[in-house]
Structure formats: C-alpha cells, structure tokens
C-alpha cells in the first residue's frame, strides 16, 4: 500500500453503468445516413476516443461515412440521455472511493467521454469532492489503447505511473494502462477478459470494492 501514490478511474462501464447508453445510441445516429450498426461495431469502438475512435468508425462504417459528424452526434445524444436518464453507480464504487479518501490517495477520472459528460456524471452522483483531476480524452486527440490520457493524468496528479493504479473495464483501457506502465486492474463490465488481456492486467476483480483487498494484502506493491 505504501508504494501506491494515486488511483485513476475510467468512467463508462467502470464507475457508472453508461455503456448501454453508448451502445444503444449508435443506431439512431447512424441510420439516417443509411448505415447499419452491428454488435461487432459496438464492441469494437467501446472505450475509444479522438482519432482512435474515428479510425474505428471508418473501419466498421466505411471510408465514405461521415465519421466526424457521426461521432459528434453520438456524443451529443449520449450527453442528452445522461442528463435525462441518469447513470447508476457500479457496485463497490462508494466503498472504494471512501477507502481511498481515508488513505489520502489522490484520485482522478480519465475518460474518453466529453468533459461535460464526465462532470455531469460525477456531480449528479455526488462524487466531485473525491477527485483532484477530471481529464477527457477528447482534449488529447489520441485515444486508448494509446496510454497518453493516463500519462497526462498521472502528470497532473503528480504521481509515478509505475506507482499509480489504473482501473478499467474495457480491453482498450487495459491495453492503455499496460502500455503506460501502470498498475492496471480490470473490473469487467460487458466483456470478460480473454487470456491476452489477463496477461496485460496486473489483476482482475469482479467488483470495485475488491480492490481494497488487493491494497490491504500488499499485492499491488
């Protein structure tokens, strides 16, 4: 525990149950353009942002698809739905946040969502006081699995990546944490890790509050 300097949280699917909102918003955005959304596409773009998202959309929708416009419309629709529908917290989130707060460990949210969506989710759930940094991947251009968002967040927190925990639910997020040299813990949401992802993760747990046990037992250094 003494070696851990800070904790970075992904948001969608990790802190809040927002992935269904993202997933079900693609079809109404794409259909007016005559584009079909598949389950493979929804899974393939999950956790991406910036140029990484645009490249994935081109892959699934074709080079002629207006991917920049589609991505902007997707974000706008998700923001509207978050504001009207709300986003339930994932199991164990409150317990882990309170534990880390009691340990005086600095915390951050690093997400591919827009700044407005991040702030809305955190504030509406009464969690703003826990976090020292909120960083949107939209400001960086390079999305996960590029580690830039986590590296920039650690810099803002003032922590060493190798002594900073990254909490993620997506494959691309685990790759980003691993690529940046972080202590990377997966809490699966919609997709269970395969052998490759398990090899990249420092640990895999079922619920966020199980991270407390890892810290207490000294398994994270």
Show unreliable segments: none
For the record, the CATH class of the largest domain is Alpha Beta
Q: Output mean pLDDT.
A: 93
CATH names the topology of the largest domain as Rossmann fold
The H/E string reads EHHHHHEHEHEHEHEH
Radius of gyration: 17 Å
- Contiguous helical run count: 10
Indicate the CATH architecture of the largest domain. Answer: 3-Layer(aba) Sandwich
Strand content: 5-15%
Q: What's the oligomerization state? A: single chain
List strands and helices in order, with pairings.
Layout: E1 6-9, H1 19-30, H2 39-45, H3 50-61, H4 67-85, H5 93-102, E2 107-111, H6 115-124, E3 133-136, H7 148-157, E4 164-168, H8 171-179, E5 183-186, H9 195-200, E6 203-204, H10 210-217
Parallel strand pairs: 1-2, 1-4, 2-3, 4-5, 5-6
Provide an overview of this structure.
- There is one protein chain.
- With 221 residues, the protein is an alpha/beta fold.
- The chain has two domains: 6-16 and 88-217, 3-Layer(aba) Sandwich (Rossmann fold), CATH 3.40.50; 19-85, DNA polymerase, domain 1 (Orthogonal Bundle), CATH 1.10.150.
- Helix content is 47%, strand content 11%.
- The protein contains ten helices and six strands; from the N terminus they run βαααααβαβαβαβαβα.
- It has helices at residues 19-30, 39-45, 50-61, 67-85, 93-102, 115-124, 148-157, 171-179, 195-200, 210-217, and strands at residues 6-9, 107-111, 133-136, 164-168, 183-186, 203-204.
- A six-stranded parallel β-sheet has the order 3-2-1-4-5-6, sandwiched between helices.
- Strand 4 (164-168), helix 8 and strand 5 (183-186) form a beta-alpha-beta unit.
- Helix 1 crosses helix 4 (67-85), helix 2 runs antiparallel to helix 3 (50-61) and helix 4 runs parallel beside helix 6.
- It is globular and about 55 Å long.
- The N and C termini lie close together (6 Å).
């Amino acid at each position: 525990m003494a070696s851990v300097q800070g904790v970075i949280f992904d948001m969608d699917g990790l802190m809040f149950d927002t992935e269904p909102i993202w997933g079900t918003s693609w079809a109404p955005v794409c259909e007016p353009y005559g584009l079909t959304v598949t389950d493979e596409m929804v899974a393939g773009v999950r956790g991406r942002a910036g140029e990484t998202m645009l490249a994935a959309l081109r892959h699934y929708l074709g080079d002629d698809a207006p991917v920049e416009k589609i991505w902007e419309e997707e974000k706008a629709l998700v923001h509207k739905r978050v504001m009207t529908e709300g986003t339930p917290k994932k199991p164990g989130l409150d317990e882990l946040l309170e534990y880390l707060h009691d340990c005086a460990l600095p915390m951050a949210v690093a997400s591919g969502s827009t700044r407005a969506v991040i702030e809305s989710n955190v504030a509406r759930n009464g969690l703003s006081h826990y976090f020292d940094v909120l960083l949107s991947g939209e400001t960086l251009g390079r999305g996960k699995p590029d580690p830039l968002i986590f590296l920039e967040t650690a810099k803002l927190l003032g922590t060493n990546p190798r002594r900073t925990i990254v909490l993620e639910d997506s494959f691309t997020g685990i790759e980003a944490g691993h690529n940046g040299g972080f202590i990377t813990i997966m809490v699966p949401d919609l997709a269970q890790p395969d052998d490759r992802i398990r090899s990249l993760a420092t640990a895999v747990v079922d619920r966020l509050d199980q991270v407390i046990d890892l810290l207490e037992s000294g398994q994270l250094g």
